[in-house]
UniProtKB/TrEMBL annotation:
This is ABC transporter domain-containing protein. Residues 1-57 are annotated as: Disordered. The keyword Cell wall biogenesis/degradation does not apply. Residues 43-57 have a biased composition (Basic and acidic residues). It holds the Pfam family ABC2_membrane_7. It is a multi-pass membrane protein. SUPFAM superfamilies: P-loop containing nucleoside triphosphate hydrolases (SSF52540). It is found in: Membrane. Gene3D superfamilies: P-loop containing nucleotide triphosphate hydrolases. Residues 75-315 form the ABC transporter domain.
Amino acid sequence: MLDEELQELKTNGNVKTKTSTKIKKSMRKSKRISVDPTGFHVSEVDHHSKEDDDPEEVNHRIDAAWMAPRDHSVFEFRDISYIVGKRKKQKQILTNVSGRVSDGSTVAILGPSGAGKTSLLKALSLGITSGEVMGSIELNGKKLTSQGFKDHCFLVEQSDHHWSFLSCQETLMYAASLLLGPGNHSAVVENVIDKMGLQSCKDTKVGNDFVQGLSGGQKRRLSIAIALLKKPAVIMLDEPTSGLDSAASVAIVSELRKLAKSENLIVIMTIHQPSTKVYNDFDQVMLMSKGRQAYMGKAASAHEYFETIGYPMMQMTNPADFLVDLVNADFTSEDSVIAILDEWKRHLAYKTKRCKGRKVEVDSNDDFHQLMRRKKSFLHQLSTVFRRHGLLVARDPILYVGRIVVLLISNTVFSLAYWSSRDKVQEQSINFYYANAWPISLGSMFAVVAVFVLNSEFKSIMREVRNGMINPVTYIMAKTILVLPVMLLFGAAALSTGVYAILGLKANYGVYMVMYAISVFVFECIAEVLSVAFINPLMGMLCFLSIWFTSFLFGGTFLPPDDLSVVIRWLYHAMPLSYTFNAISYHVFAGEEWPSCIPDANAGAVCVDFNEFPREEPITLILESLSKIVPNVSGDDNRMDAMAIILGMALGYKFLYVAIFLFRTSQSTKLRGVCEDTFINRDDVQST
Ligand SMILES: Nc1ncnc2c1ncn2[C@@H]1O[C@H](COP(=O)(O)OP(=O)(O)OP(=O)(O)O)[C@@H](O)[C@H]1O
């Protein structure tokens, strides 16, 4: 309803309901703002009026500002060059690529495979973090910085990293909450659902490779819908039609064109080889080959330009095929491609020497962004991310729920395997020890799954951070708070049925749960580090398994630390499981009635001579006797110390995780400004 009112208001502005009156008032307020034509500068904003303090009023102003068309903008990049490698192995990926796009335009970057399309888009979205990038990128005449990109631009990547277990509508509601601040944004969300044709699948889960969900085209539409929620000046899309059939490709590109016109957007996309229908929807095209430009200008005039330089297009030809084939060295001679690239350089107008890299950031003082900045607080973001990931923790079976179920089943089976240790006799003490060591070993090893899942989550978070949706700290905090009780649930699943119900353990349940949770938590923290340290999750998983097995082997269950070579003896002290096994073995034998060992009456090596261990306490005795077989067991109560050391290790790993996480999410392209002669498009010279 509100949506319809807003639409009507936007077109004729005479809806007479209470809600629309508020929005109207808000829009009038928005109009009080005068916009500097060179940027998004606001000259007159009443920052502290009484109405601004009313959350409902601010909410309506945001909705109204969101509905209003965006300010005019110009995106310009000059002499973008990109070099990778060092010295003799240097490779020039991009060479002096320039362009200028105004709002309302859709630009397609075309070219054969390896032409440099993706590299250019990455450079324009400040996403290149290695090698050297030169040139200048400006939005409304001001240098585009990472913050400027977060405020005014949005990159839709080729692979859609969404939250698989959220529905389309839930995804958009959380995105709206993150982008627009607190309040009910269902009207705005409905608006983008309608615009992107997602009405029929709004309750469908996004899905992934393992869970059926949205189709490829719907996922792409969802990515664009999220971008629209932000109301950016520029949307960049990497291959938005890849993997889609021709009808879906036409629909997406024509929708983007309409959006560019209606929302004053600049749309820049890379595209491989579009059909004629898709090509006709582009306002401008940039043709690339060998990292250089062969053409940049009106899509409809491209064939005229090539005709003037001696390459007429045959009738009934797909213009995109014609252009791409012209500069594809696989179909044309290398010399001919170079001649076309050189010809374009000659065609460009010469502009005087100019130093780029001015340190002026894009303003984000337009009304919409002013309001949003005031509304979006760290706490609000934290609570949104907390609610979203709480839902995902409950729904995603791979991350935690699956582990809880497997721990429950496997440890029930283990306890049945050690059924005889219920007798609590000396010769069963070793079995009872193992019955308690396996649940913790298994629980800590299962954290390998977290490496895989968190690696994939990190990609989604990276997308959100780069597009200015969230502060990475909110994700880290929310996840840490959510994971702590889950560790206790792991303990409950691993121990309740197995060692407590089946084997009749009497040791304090609460203390055991906490010890279990801490011991598994440290491995969860190791998994977090490895999930962000490697781009490929399989590398992280391999590393995790190596660390876990080292911890298991050098945990003192099998090898006495004193027998180890001095070169690797430190591993016994550096790995968490040695502390865990020591503390847990004391805990499970403490408080139990273990009959004293009678010398000579027992077969096997378990029984000890009283004279060797003159102490009276039965717990100490059983532990001392057990230590003959399990080197790490001792009669001393080290539980507090052990847990403190493990928590310290967990904290260390957490620190490392946060450092890598923040480092990777903060990386962006460092553009090195150049002071060289600049060549720009003749058309642009005329239009400026
Ligand atoms: N970091 C890098 N190190 C070495 N070579 C690179 C690097 N990045 C890109 N390249 C090379 O630069 C060229 C352009 O790559 P890019 O992915 O930009 O091309 P593209 O036009 O998007 O190709 P496609 O359409 O096949 O995706 C390719 O030859 C690629 O191998």
